[in-house]
Amino acid sequence: MARLVQKFGGAAVAGLERVSAVAEQIKKAWSNNHEVAVVVSAMKGETDRLVSLAQQVMQQPNSREYDVLVSSGEQVSVALLAMALNKIGVPACSLLGHQVRIRTDSSHARAKILSVDTNRVKELLTVKKVPVIAGFQGIDAHEELTTLGRGGSDLTAVALAAALAAETCEVYKDVDGVFTADPLVCGDAALIETVSYEEMMELASSGAKVLQTRAVLFAKNSGVSIHVKSCFNWDRPGTQVVSEDKLMEKAVVSAVTIDKNEAKIGIDRLPDKPGVAAKLFSALTEKEIFVDMIVQNVSSEGNCALAFTVPKDQVEEAYAIVKQLCQEHGWGGVLKDEKVAKVSAIGVGMRTHSGVASQMFQALAEEGINITMIGTSEIRISCLIEEKYAELALRTLHEAFRLGQPNPNKS
Ligand code: ASP
Ligand code: MG
Q: Does ligand 1 lie within 6 Å of residue 151's CB atom?
């Protein structure tokens, strides 16, 4: 008998038929005498619909009311799933974030989980009931409703698994698991059976939208093992996210990704002296703008040029801040470019192998793809390129690093 957390995403509960299928899947584990705690997202598209309603009322809605609104999607799905479970003879009880007492800080719309009270959940598990817990939501110290940021029910599931010391946290998605590249772009993309937490975090923050980055970080820090599985093909093996020392084989490059969610901002003339970059990036940090890649070139006469990337949905705000600074300090002109894409190669083997960067640049060069920025971590290399080459670049790199599954028709 094991204790499991099973998390079902929006696609898994997209309609009433899907809800019944999920209930049957839970029943299998429950009938095998496992203790199962369930976490659910809102039905597919529902959170987007609620966000859009809020924005129709006002562009920047009050953050407290925003959370009261957008957390309502999960209230619907937990109740429906609990009903579907009870109907097939599995005693279940829905619980909202405040009923479990998932404590968060007060930063509405991106709250951090501080603690999870397991008393009520454990009481249910002890009497063989299935707690069906609303993902994405919690309460702060003043009993105000909070939400954890988009995709946050992954985080709820991982935090609950950690608090319950669950054996594993199964995350059911509309994909079979983590692939060597987006299968819609690379037809021969292969499923990766095990991936390390670090690789998964790099993948999640480089465009592979399988798991929320914060949830993977939480899992790594608390030692929760995550198993990503398909909610359409229950029997497929899926992908296990494990610590690096458990990896059987450390691939130099495990996967390649594209991210079209960043935009570039460039300043063509900045004084080349101490404090300039600090001034610029402090102004961006103050507005919580996430800067990813940064490049600075030496230019002439004591000036330099600087470019950086930010998430597309923050580019207007970042552009306005930079323009203002340029005017105040007599810096050069500002350019923004939204037609860019970031391609990345990720693999833990990069820690010990050299040559990945040169292989990547060579492969892109052979296709005539220009690189405008380069960013790296210990296990990732990213290149910023023109957006129109994104898919070509992904296929080129997937082939260059030989990540595709063997084609049975080729000898
Ligand atoms: N329903 C929320 C969202 O769409 C949380 C989640 O799905 O994880 O972002
Ligand atoms: Mg989701």
A: yes
For residue 351, give every residue at least 6 positions away whose Cβ sits within 8 Å of its Cβ, in sequence order, or none: 378, 379
- Asked whether residue 186 is domain-assigned, the answer is no
Query: What pTM did the predictor assign?
Result: 0.90
Answer yes or no: is 342 within a domain. Answer: no
Whether residue 110 has its Cβ less than 6 Å from ligand 1: no
> What does the DSSP 8-state code read for residue 407?
P
pLDDT tens digits for 361-411? Answer: 999 999 999 999 999 999 999 999 999 999 999 999 999 999 998 765 544
Find out whether the beta carbon of 135 lies less than 6 Å from any atom of ligand 1: yes
Q: Is the CB of 153 under 6 A from ligand 1?
A: yes
Q: If you measure from the C-alpha of residue 393 to the centroid of ligand 2, how many angstroms do you get, rounded to a whole number? A: 28
CATH of the domain at 157: 3.40.1160.10
Report pLDDT for 251: 83
- Tell me how crowded residue 368 is: count the other CB atoms within 10 A of its CB: 8
Report d(CA 264, CA 308) in Å as an integer: 6
Tokens of 133: 């817990």
